[in-house]
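During the reporting period the student researcher (J.K.) took over the structure-prediction task from the postdoctoral fellow and processed the backlog of single-chain submissions. One of the processed entries is reproduced below for the supervisory committee.
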Amino acid sequence: MSAIKHKTLLENLAASQLTERRSGETVYALIVASMTPAADDLAGEMRREIEARHAEADRLRLRAIERAQVDADLAQRRFMLVHPSNRPVTDTLAQEWNDKLSQIAVLKSFSSNRTLR
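J.K. obtained the following structure tokens:
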């Protein structure tokens, strides 16, 4: 697109008092007109990169949830193996187990909020 044509489109956009819909269409037309094949390729490449990063982040969140679940399972086993008469140890292990379960809930909540893009 030539610089003169681009400048003319910008001047027309600035000078016109169009409705919101009409100005949106004009902005869209300006963007489409100024897109070159190289810019279009770059935009596509950037989109693919962003999607790949989102997918990797989703995988990492799932792995964090799985690790937290393993930790919670281990805390539960330790709690279950302690003799009930040993109150200080059972209280500590119960708190540890509850902390691990809370951590799982937080991770799942965070993950569900992030995947709802």
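The committee noted the following: The CA atoms of residues 71 and 100 lie 7 Å apart.
J.K. will present the remaining backlog at the next meeting.
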